[in-house]
Amino acid sequence: MKDSNSLHLKLQEYADCYSESDAGRGLKEISEKGAGGEVTGDMTDMALKYLSSAILHAIEEEAQKLQLAREGAMQGECKLIGKQETSLPKPPYGLAREMMGIVRCITDLEADNGDSKLAYGVRNDRFEIDVTVHKSGEKEVMGLTLPTAR
Which of 24-33, 79-88, 136-145 comes out lowest in average pLDDT? Predict the structure, then answer.
């Protein structure tokens, strides 16, 4: 099992790194280049980059929720849910499963169905993201609900 503290720290580092960039463009690049475009060739690192960019994009777009879904080990999708539903660039094969595994590891969500909280920070702002997960057979859906703007 991966160290949840180092995964969480790495996710935070990418949030800081990408907070000044165009998160939507970053997602598109990861989608187009796939694992071959990743310098390290590390699926976990690519999943952390995509996940961090997707959360930042959700914040930029004022979405209420980021939804990750997968069917089987390889097929996955991500979308923003808010005033309207927007599909994000398709994660490369196997990446949705890896992202869900990372969130499960960080939040200690081991059961097929459950909920937890994910502490997330962007620069000087810190907040909690509500995480829900539902798995049935080969289908798994994970929702990351962002705090509402005050």
Answer: 24-33
User: How many CA atoms are closer than 13 Å to the CA of 137, on its beta-carbon side?
Assistant: 3
**Contact partners, residue 14, CB within 8 Å, separation at least 6:** 48, 49, 52, 53
List all residues 6 or more positions away from 104 whose beta carbon is below 8 Å from its beta carbon: 110, 133
Residue 1 pLDDT > 60: no
pLDDT of residue 43: 87
DSSP 112: S
List, in order, residues 6 or more apart from 5 with CB less than 8 Å away. none
The CA-CA-CA angle for residues 77, 82, 83, to 5°, reads 130
